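seq as requested:
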Amino acid sequence: MLRSVIGGSEVGGGTEYVSSNPAVLDDVVATVELADAVTFRAACAAAREAQREWALVPAPVRGQVVGAFGRLVAANKAALARLVTREIGKPYAEALGEVQEIIDTCEFFLGEGRRLYGQTVPSEMPDKQLFTYRVPVGVAVVVTAGNFPVAVPSWYLAPALLCGNAVVWKPAEYASACARALSELAWRAGVPAGVLNLVFADGDTTYAGLDAALGDGLVDKVGFTGSTAVGRRVGELCGRHLQTPCLELGGKNPMVVAPDANLELAVEAALFSGYGTAGQRCTSLGTVIAHTDVHDEFLRRFADAVSAAPVGDPTADVVYGPMLDDRFARGFENTLGWVGDHHTVLGSTSVGRITADAPREGFVGDPATGLYYHPVLLDGVRPTDKVFTEETFGPVVGVTTYDTLDEAIELANAPGYGLSSAVYTTDPRTAFRFRQGVGAGMVSVNNSTSGAEAHLPFGGNGKSGNGSRQSGVWVLDQFTRWQSMNWDFSGSLQKAQLDVTTIEPEMEYRLPATWL
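struct tokens:
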């Protein structure tokens, strides 16, 4: 039984939620007591109280805590990865990579504890000094999805804690055990009680609790990773309280395959980014935009790769395992209704859930135990299709064609998302023109749409986010505010713009003609 942890103490809830292994539905990972809105607000109040002392801890010392957090994760890497695989069905190799992302993030922010720099600014008046400081925002509420149940939360937690903030973390219900495990490691690393509070709650309760906490002045920053639809509601709520949230939302990520592309590499990348994690990443490949000259050959190779890809038991060597949870399985079945008569359907022996009546050739394990779905590859996708314009969040990739690079860029931008993108080419001009024209916050050249490094900014534009960025030094702007200070030691009141020494140049002077 998992309960919320507020101020270091477990707090019971009312409604129970059962987190099950999506690969083996009979395997109950945890039973979770979900908190109500009053409890959520109480967590924000506890964070407010604890944050005052945490902010007084020197930043290099806070960095040491973040570094210890990373080392504890490293010591528990295999165990935490196994839990990720068990609770959300992510293949074990991918889960190990996700845990490594936490370690990398903590290593980076360990050093930032000694580089939380401000600036000394020259004054326009004598005997006066100007300074700038980064100060913590205060209390941050972090709401995360469960497709990356430990890596993405670390993108918020590590910098937020380093900067002197207290955090109320609301993870996805279906990843509750992963959240508790990660929180335990943070607390054991030295994060004080109340500085990190873990609240299990459903979406409606979280919204109501956040509304109340914002209204009472208990929350200074909201970080949200999830769907575009919910992100809009969070943004509207924060806007009413004059706050700018950090929104990391969905994606409809394009991959342009130029006529000079290395098709073998392009297919490998499309398979990984389109079907890894069963297409349930915000950075999953949405549509391949292939040049007409290479479309047929690319499609043939890609279809063969998808058809041959091992799917099934996530503890085995597979490209992907089950859907994360029943709600995503239902959502993907709805997406399959967008497949039209003009689409050519490739990639597997059937469409929909993998069953004894609709088997997947080469399936690894027993499909009857979990939420397994056939990979779908759709050729002939049109810009007016919902499968082209909307995030699908499942193992489906569309393919369309283009003739000119300008047309490819227009197609890449058409859905209105702007998270990740990729282009495969051997021509630098194509790569740079694509980067210049595409609206995505992240661009890959000869690499997949999925994948992030801990020291590179991560985030999107348009329907993918509000321009905020995570990772690297750029995320510090989410969890600190700039404070300026001026110190006048002249012994008199020097008034800016009034008591400033002025220089009067001789503007009428001209060089003598005899010099020319």
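DSSP finds 15 helices and 21 strands in the chain.
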